[in-house]
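Hi there, hope your week has been kind to you so far. Would you mind checking whether the tokens look sensible for this chain? I owe you a coffee for this, so here goes:
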Amino acid sequence: MLCFVILHSGSFRCCKLTSFVPVHRATILSPKRRKIGEKLRVFCQMVNKPKLSGFVALALASILSTSSTLCLFKALAYPESTQALLVGRTDNASNNELQLLSEIWSLVDNYYYDKTYSGHSWNQIWKEYSAKLTSRRETTYKVATEMVKVLKDPYSAVVRPADFQRLLKYDMTGTGLLLAPSKDGNLLVTGPPPKGSPAQKAGIRVGDRIVAVNGKPVKGMTSIEAAEALQGDGKSQLVLILDSEGTNNSSRTVTLNREYSKENAIPSYRIFPFQAKDREYRVGYIKIREFNASVAHQLLQVVNYLEHEGANAYILDLQGNRGGALEGAVQVASIFMDHGTVVRIIDRNHHEDQLTVDSTSRLMADNVTPTTDPLVILTDKYSASASEILASALHDNCRAVLVGQRTFGKGLVQAVFGLSDGGGLVLTVAEYQTPNHLNIHKKGIEPDIFLKQTKPSNVVRQWDNIHRRLCECRQSLPSN
């Protein structure tokens, strides 16, 4: 299975269906996962179900607003109760509505992080809510919404097709392709490309089969190799050879021009000169509004500029940042740390996956490596999810001091699974912990230095205290 995960406003993560080998969807960075026993586990390993058949899932992690994880994987078969209800039904509309509701029911059944389903029998829930269906699609969505509300989970919800489009800004590949492995070892387009995406503009349709990427045959590639081929360097064109499923004589070549979110993730940045007791600092201030698919590209440009302006310390302002693409948070962390654990993802079976960066996969701007410059993270009560992941990663690895107020406290991972009609299901599938094993859900992260007035000019006045705390933290680290 190909999958990518989004936390809060969005973040993408990938994994392989059968062997739990993660597929790195990062456009620039492919973060490493720590080996556990003899296998590599990723949080969506729970999708390893023998009865799955082809379909795409877009997984999102949400907090306050949407957050994502795009999973491309095999879809669930009908539950037995659905098959029973279909017997004797002849109206196509009713069958279609049952199929759609069964997709949602099965996703909850297999992936919801609470196996008790908030104290309900999920089989009984199917019988109760499937009986309410009519031949109208709007009724199906209303019934599905009511069914998911039974979970009493404020972060799980049904997404109508019209709302799916807005998730494009978290597509780290810049293509809009929704894929799953085909039976013959190639890649199958299993969902309609979102309107306006490069894939849709190129006329790619459900059922098309990708047999080669940039001249390399897909058959025989591992999931990681296929994902890396699709991502390229984040800027290049993507040349695909396609044919229709089941045919080998009607191949065509399609060139996709990658398109990433044009929303500005970094609305402001500047240099603040400051004279400390024993050193003159030129503090580079950077405001990060969200972690969308282009945040890493934008941040690299900003860091490159600030470095050329003489920056020797940094302030990352995450105040009001409610999250975004998990991959974006990992990429940003890799700019400021050369190795270490970024976050721990724990699925409903209590399996842990560590997302890490190392010196071979980190991001660099013109060979600039600000991995030792003093760093401050500004937070407030609205800093959430992917923001909390970045803050805790840099803090726990002794790269940054947290200044400001306690963060929001969003420690659950949601996934938005794409449905066959173009809609989706946002579903809580896991929780996460900081590198130091802190569960922050409904607790938040306490700053090292509490500060109500967090203007950069106020922060730099704390610089001696900030420097002292960084030194103490680094001294506490075990020696290599």
Summary: Residues 92-111 form the longest helix (20 residues). Residues 305 and 440 are 34 Å apart (CA to CA). Residues 1-82 have pLDDT under 50 and may be disordered.
